[in-house]
Amino acid sequence: MDKLLIEGGARLSGEIAISGAKNAALPILCAALLTTEPVTFTNVPRLNDIATLLRLLEQMGVKVSREADVVTLDASGVDNPVASYEMVKTMRASILVLGPLVARFGEARVSLPGGCAIGARPVDQHIKGLQAMGADVKVEHGYVHAKVPKLKGARIFTDMVTVTGTENLMMAACLADGETVIENAAREPEVVDLANCLVAMGARISGAGGDVIRIQGVAALHSATHRVMPDRIETGTYLCAAAVTGGDVRLTGTSASYLDAVIDKLMDAGCEIVAERDAVRLKAPARLNAVSLRTAPYPAFPTDMQAQFMAINAVAEGTAVIRETIFENRFMHAVELQRLGADIKIDGNTAFVKGVARLQGATVMATDLRASASLIIAGLVAEGETTIERIYHLDRGYEKLESKLAALGAKVRRLS
Ligand code: EPZ
Fold first, then answer.
1. Which of 53, 130, 164 to mutate to test ligand 1, by most ligand atoms within 8 A of the CB atom?
2. Which of 74, 180, 294, 314 has the fewest CB atoms lying closer than 10 Å?
3. Hey, how many other C-beta atoms are within 10 angstroms of the C-beta on 231?
4. Which helix (H) or strand (E) holds 103?
5. What pLDDT, on the 0 to 100 scale, is given for residue 416?
6. Is 116 considered catalytic here?
7. What's residue 85's pLDDT?
């Protein structure tokens, strides 16, 4: 298992490019299943999760070609609308093939993702929506088995805001008979990026980005080329890494426009942010002020940035109160940060973080993707060396992580 070694104390400065958004690319790659024509995607990040999904699509019969950040998919020869447990257990976002497979083939067998470190993460809303559109859905032997001659447009109200639930149902509705209305829809920018891609493929969608999305089913979708949006969570992660080291960095190929809640908190913490057309620059003070936050669906503060902010609060001036309202178990980074000397008390879904003057380097273990990012941020400012184990979690969501950090002056190296 790979480990990451970080020597704390370097002040990050300089410029790096941000990659395409993992959580936009995943549903967008699945959208290729909706058409018999080849579809090309650019700015696709080189991440393990993306590679896993491309393997799954190939197993179904999709022809995959990849050249740097350009991926072309041809789903004309799909003959196996099944996503096996072996594939899905390693990447729960595989559930995103369910909607497109049912819409195009009238049948799909997709393994239940099962829980993951941060929570149970059921897919009952995905199933409820497909049933509303006329699919006969059974959950048996750990698989979701959906069948329907043809999906029918329906009015769907999801019990809670679900990002991939909204995405799955929006994709399914593209080829249904009639109009589908998704109420209480997720408003995340990645949902909008998927909608833009589907429209380029001939879908008729309005309202994406709001909480009511209308989709008029069409007979078929066609080929298109779509550029994946920048990764706002990768952007936020590097902004936090720069902020905690008193740094001055410029991130290119991205923008601050999908990160208002995060930018606001970084400014409250004392950072100066300059938003350019396709770049964002951050200058940090010597020490940050503690900032409290509460995660919630977009446009509120994103749960995927909660762990990173716990790390910067660990050495900030004052005490921060962090409330996690999306996932039931997303504080596992707290115990690892405590090993580095952080003063954190957990009470249910609330964490009280009292800033300390210095953290001490230690060996810590990554548990999930964003928790791993928070350990890196803490390691950048901890005294001495921090070793982060199980960094395969990081490789799922951060492209060329150590080379980007090193380009900003961090003393980091990977031990295989
Ligand atoms: C997406 O997960 C992201 N993943 C997650 O990013 C992100 O943390 C999450 O949205 C919230 O923003 C991708 O886009 C691939 P949800 P998703 O459905 O869609 C409950 C990362 O680090 N729920 O919005 O799985 C669920 O348990 C990952 O990149 C149901 O109960 O999240 C959770 O508590 C981590 N039933 C809440 O809703 C359902 O059918 C929000 O989940 C669906 C969801």
1. 164
2. 294
3. 28
4. helix 98-105
5. 85
6. yes
7. 87
